[in-house]
Amino acid sequence: MPASAHVAPDEIRDLFSRALSEMYRAEVPQYGALLDLVAQVNAGALAEDPALRSALACRGELDRLSVERHGAIRLGTAAELFTIRRLFAVMGMHPVGYYDLSVAGVPVHSTAFRPVEDAALGRNPFRVFTSVLRLELIEDAALRAEVARILSARRIFTPRALALTQGAETAGGLDHAQAEEFVREALETFRWHRDATVTLSTYKALHDAHRLVADIASFKGPHINHLTPRTLDIDAVQAGMPKHGIAPKAVIEGPPRRKCAILLRQTSFKALDEPIVFKAEEHGSGDGTHTARFGEIEQRGVALTRKGRKLYDTLLATARRDAQSMASDYDTVLAEAFQAFPDNWRDLREQGLAFFRYSPTEAGLAAAASGQMLAPTVDGLVAQGYLRFDPIIYEDFLPVSAAGIFQSNLGTDEQRNYRARSNREAFEDALGAKVHDELELYAQAEALSLHQAWAQLGIGHGSSLNRHGMIPTAH
Ligand code: OOG
Ligand code: NI
């Protein structure tokens, strides 16, 4: 089949994320209420702040805002992880980052499947936080064997989803009819199942090991457990939730409210207690409940460099430690700790704390056209007003926040202390690929923007450009 007959992976991802959102809206009505609230808050924020509107428009983020969301699933086996990577690849989603949640007492490790290129992110940045059970963290050997047996018997992908994934790999894509069928079939893996594949007593044993183990091993598939829209004002949504009949968790995860948003702030509403029909057993009824699915919202800010991330991690750790010993509330302690994090774009850039996308200004283009002498460094060009810089948005997740989101839905009794080390190698072996390094992706996006800016200013190309470096002279 000629390549031109293929539907672009970006289009398939867009179709899929819309279909998934519709499915989840029908399954969890509170998610629909949350979407409405977020749409209201976002419209209000844009109307009130024309500068915000034009900044988003300029960065190409205005159009993607209403379709922007992430979801999360929890898989059971290495084979499931291997296959989901292939399935997501059909939609232009690739594994980025490694998150070890065992340090937070959750027996999984994770990656995020997401688009990696600027154009694809601009089209629809849909991401899925994907965890896989670390079987070795189940202490009881008999239960561990039982979980392995249950998981090895299930098939979470439909035969057609597998065939179409294989077909896309061989042919290099899917045609229109195949893409639509692929979306329908792939959706089945993410669907909720009211019927458990285990008896109530097995469920209880799994639940006693860890509630997450029960969530992963009791069902036919890895139901999507939340979908998270992006808001422009998370504090407004947090405050507005109760009025919409939604009960938010107590604190917003991540950095405090700031003028220059960094990384990611998230909050969620509590998981719902849902009726389940368990497999019949000799004694007792098969009816029970399971708590798994919830709603979450997030506000995204600039991606931080390694240096910026280190500062973030240090200040967050300080705030979390102080919050335990001080009488003030967490938000106050957090805001105080983050006084040490510069809160204006100029300092964030000059101190190398965040990533930016550079582009020539009108004045810069005019100066270049008139043959004027241009400053020989990025900083010089910025000072001359010839180069502008816009924040590169953080597209990933935060392990401490993710643990907080997991915990808020597990109840306080679920703190475990796993002594296991993080095991990225085993994760990548199961995945059948290396995960992308998110810092490298942001650095590449920044470098690419500089190359394009040089070309537009007629300065010539160089391969070793960085924020502060000299512009190499053309030979
Ligand atoms: C995933 C929790 C992590 C986030 O936004 O940090 C997450 C899960 O509960 O499966 O989605
Ligand atoms: Ni989430």
TrEMBL record:
Keywords: Dioxygenase, Iron, Oxidoreductase
Alphabetized InterPro entries for the sequence: HGLS (IPR009770), YdcJ_bac-like (IPR047869)
Signal peptide: none
Keyword Iron: yes
Keyword Iron among UniProt keywords: yes
Coiled coil: none
Top-level taxonomic group: Bacteria
This enzyme's EC code(s): 1.13.11.93
SMART domains: DUF1338
Family annotation (Pfam families): HGLS
EC top class named in words: oxidoreductase
Required co-factors: Fe(2+)
One MF annotation (Gene Ontology) recorded for this entry: dioxygenase activity
CDD domains given in the database record: VOC_YdcJ_like (cd16348)
Membership in a protein family: Belongs to the 2-oxoadipate dioxygenase/decarboxylase family.
Record-given protein name: 2-oxoadipate dioxygenase/decarboxylase
Organism: Aliidongia dinghuensis
